[in-house]
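>> Question from a student workshop board

For tomorrow's exercise we were told to take the sequence and the ligand below, predict the bound structure, and bring the output to class. My setup keeps failing. Could a helper post the expected result so I can at least see what it should look like? The ligand is magnesium ion.
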Amino acid sequence: MEVKIRKIIREEDIHDAIKKIARRIESDYKDEEVLLVGILKGSFVFLSHLILELKIQHQVDFIGISSYGKSTKSTGVVRVLFDMQTSPVGKNIVVVDDIVDTGLTLDYLKRNLLTRNPKSLKFCVLFDKKENRLIPFEPDYTGIVVPNKFLVGFGMDYKEYYRGLPFVGVLEE
Ligand code: IMP
Ligand code: MG
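>> Workshop helper replied:
Here is what the output should look like for this input. Compare the format with yours to find the bug.
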């Protein structure tokens, strides 16, 4: 497979965006604890950098989600593959994902988690493909707004490859 990757977001801009998000979360929760819930698999690189920055008490958990048939296009069908292990009841939950695109995944999770009586529920994404929403969804914390192109790197994959790129690139076949 011969693919070219064109860098569109630099490492330093990603790290600046993560620091800004961490400062905003710290000021929103001050002396409260948060439970950060990463959506696998795309969130794990962002989440690991975020917690190294975050100076408030926090717990970490994950939810495994599948959207069937997704390679470069969303199918819109969302399903929980495995659930978080920590109880969400009474917790300040911040759901963390790499990117919000159509909005279907986070909208589904919002409806799902709200039925489970958290103390509060917010959504945090590193990248936002604002132009591509199929459903209105506004994350509480957004790092960088990105163009409506298929991106790889910093956790984002193409067929499970390229998650480890330290920058964000566009696939050019
Ligand atoms: P949504 O439900 O369409 O908002 O899709 C969100 C999920 O799709 C994210 O958690 C990503 O895993 C994945 N995704 C969306 N856009 C991209 C992309 O450009 N590259 C890689 N994965 C993406
Ligand atoms: Mg994902």
